[in-house]
Amino acid sequence: MAAPQTKETPMPLARPLPEGGVWITAARKAAQARLAEMGLPGRRDEYWKFTKPDSLIASDAPRAVLYQGEVPEVFDTVDRLRIVFVDGVFDPEASDDLALNAVRIERLADVAAQDIHWARDLYGTLEARGQDPVPRPLAALNTAQARDGVLIHVTGRASRPIHLVYVHESETSDAILHHCIRLDEGAELTLLETGPAAARFNKVIEVDLAGRAAFHHLCIQGPDHERRAITHLFARLAREAVFKTFTLTANGVLTRNECVIEIAGDDASAHVAGAAIGRGDFHHDDTVFITHDALRGESRQVFKKVLGSGATGVFQGKIMVRPGAQKTDGYQISQALLLDEDSQFLAKPELEIHADDVACSHGSTSGAIDEDALYYLRARGIPRPIATDLMVVSFVAEAVAEIADEGLRDEIIGHFEAWLERRHG
Amino acid sequence: MLEIKNLHVDLEEDDKTILKGVNLTVRAGEVHAIMGPNGSGKSTLSYVLSGRGGYKVTEGSATLDGESLLEMEPEDRAAAGLFLAFQYPVEIPGVGNMTFLRTAVNSQRKARGEPEISATDFLKLIREKAKALRIDADMLKRPVNVGFSGGEKKRNEILQMAMLEPRMCILDETDSGLDVDAMRLVSDGVNALRDAGRGFLVITHYQRLLDHIVPDVVHIMSDGRIIRTGGAELALEVEKNGYADIAAEVV
Predict the structure, then answer these.
(1) ipTM over cut 0.85
(2) Nearest 5 degrees, angle CA A274-CA A279-CA A285?
């Protein structure tokens, strides 16, 4: 754990807590205390060696020029419930009614004033559990400071996906959102998230899955390049629960997506996947920690990064198998496609196994485009840039294949291909 | 149509000379076969013509309809009408066969200043061509060559040829790994494309493919040169006596 900071107190630690009711004030104070104890992240911290936290903890968000190109609406063909945040501020006009069969949706800002709420047991709880053994101070900062977000309680099968749309309009916006999602026994929900959100975005999602619950999550970050984002996805899975998350990231000078999963019930399954592409000062960091603490748990981590012109990709992925978590099946792969010699991929795969009857594998590679395949495509008349795009699509395919729903998978592939095409102008 | 003059080629990496002065002319409407033992330079010739990296042309020329091929990028050679059916078609996971083919067809059209083919017309065309090669809808949907059997890969090559309608087709050991039925299917596919405006160069080890695709001219290649040229009967002679006799005769 990081040593407490003894120098002058940086701004984020000194900010006053937002006003609120009894339950949230207690959670915020506890988070503030956690943060004070662990201190803000520094480059000496084990898990911040590859990613500079400076711009994430600076008192003001660095200015981020808005993306000028056309950004087509994603998931347009999907019947979904849209909830829109502009620079982190809820937009009631652009949002649908927060009403969905078998789902209760509320805004954190609305219920924060109440003295009691179901989210009391969840808000900050999984975040606090996720601080051990690796501290995640920016998540604690989020719990302490977030003023809004959505609280979703699913009691059955949600009739359509919930889509959180993050619009970025201000060059200096500094957004903090905290979402809590609870799925009851056997409940099902698909959550979609799209958009650059803000110049700087700190997001936490806590997902608590009861037995046999199934949660599917798809997130698209970008294509604004100058934005910065630190996101945390904390999840706890009870018996036979299914958790699947996939993130597509295009551009971004600094994106760090942390995913912390606790497989607490037997026969549960967690898949975490991502595809990221960027050039130049693009910096993308996936930091994953999956703890198996039950029998016959299955987990997969599949991450692909396409890096060009000096871009940097980081992967820090851990599978922890606790004593007694027998028959665990853990898989982890992280790969980078380096489009030139200037780009770099920094990977730290970790396995820590305290049970003797488990199957865990991990692999990490980085390499250039397969010249034979490129030649094959070009020999059919496909010009090099387009052939390269096809190879990029091919490269990320294994990660995209982790998306269970065929329609949503096609939507992601279509969006990705269109985005690649637009880059050629 | 295809004119190769005194072509000398080295391997880029270890300065080994593979082709030592190849001369060959294929006119429109003709089918030429190149036979020869392993390591004689047959496949190298097909790679050099289609623009694969790793080779260095030290002397000579190769032109298609008078245009020099050797300075062109592989995609420009394809757009100019050259097609190579690969001996080992490459697998491309995650890219649908149909997407690949449509991209190829439209890239070539674009390069020639022609309008792109519409999705509907493309679908109609590919279904028609695929049917003749007994390629089902599933194979069209699957990723390029992934999980295809040897025969399926070769049929897929011929499908690409049929869709792209090149003027000059080079088939590099298309018969390798094919059973009798698959060989017939592939040969029928090739024969269906034979016409007065199109040339073929069929590279093979064995005479049996030439029973199905009957050539106008047969060349025997050995040690980087064409050592003998004749009619279809030359293939039969090779089948009977082997390459050693012919090579010995020349020396």
Answers:
(1) yes
(2) 40
